[in-house]
Amino acid sequence: MASACSTSPSSPGYEKIPNTSIRILRTVSSVRRFRKPLTLDSRSVALVPTMGALHAGHLSLIRAAARDNHHVIVSIYVNPAQFGVREDLGSYPVTWEADCEALAKLDRELADDGENLGRISAVFAPTTGEMYPAGFPGQEPDSKGSFVTITPVGEVLEGASRPTFFRGVATVCMKLFNVCQPDRVYFGQKDVQQTVVIKRLVEDFLMPIEQVVIVPTARDQEDGLALSSRNVYLGERRRKVANVLYRALKAAEEAYAAGEGKRDREGVLGAAQKVMEETLAEQMKLSPSERVKFEVDYLSLADPDTMLELETVDTKKGGILSGAVRFLPVEEPKEGEDLGHSGGPLVRLIDNIILPPK
Length: 358
Prior knowledge:
Blueprint: E1 6-7, E2 15-16, E3 23-25, H1 28-40, E4 45-50, H2 56-68, E5 71-76, H3 96-112, E6 119-124, H4 128-131, H5 158-161, H6 165-180, E7 184-188, H7 192-204, E8 211-215, H8 235-239, H9 244-258, H10 265-284, E9 294-302, E10 319-327, E11 347-355
Parallel strand pairs: 3-6, 4-5, 4-7, 5-6, 7-8
Antiparallel strand pairs: 1-2, 2-3, 9-10, 10-11
């Protein structure tokens, strides 16, 4: 079986995904050599940052980038700075071969679609030594090093549960933006607080990026579960219950849409909490060999610009419904049961729904 990467004999020194023109760039200097002539030729460049384990959600970002730009760079880098010391860095899925195959297939589709301005031109896949030349500064909240912090938006919700997360995200994105010099960057709405942090990063640091493009969340067509690289941890049993957060947020959205009297915090989030409580109660009636246990980390009704909590939604501005749920490991596995990737550890899933202005 051929390797998912090779050096093209027609382009000495450039590693490529086989049977494609997609270059694999592993160093900052190689990206800059690749990028410079595109600036001189006035060709637009998009960046789609990922941590690999590509799924349909990532591919939708790349399709959107190819529609509007001459060249698309996809970064694949599992950034340790955004993982806490007790989080799943060691077991995070690394699927380089499959990722390259997915990008090659998608690039062929893009080539056949006349509606696209461009295609995938390069994959930036650096090492941690390349991204952190002074040495990786660590994952503890009080670690010393060169960091970018965006406050207060990075301190609430996900930031409160994972205190080093947005520091790591903002730092690595600043590095990726500086290396790739994109005209536009593409992120998914599923990580809605991250999109607010990135917009603030670009604005506050006067970065020469024309647009931060937010692409709607990609979901399972049958039950609405948001696509995520972490879904592989769920296994068959927990996967059947995993859309509870989406169902709860949909209930809150319906409460918001129902009328003026239910646009306050208690009325909107109360509907979501009811779905959570009823679902957990149903699961706890089952035996340990059948049930799924989960814990609600948070449910939020927040301002779309700051992610700070709202008591009442200003219908002229709208809001953001979001939440996080921890699915506990299966209590009593059945013989031969699919527990998920890496033995089915605790899985923390997030989701959100935008409440548009009225």
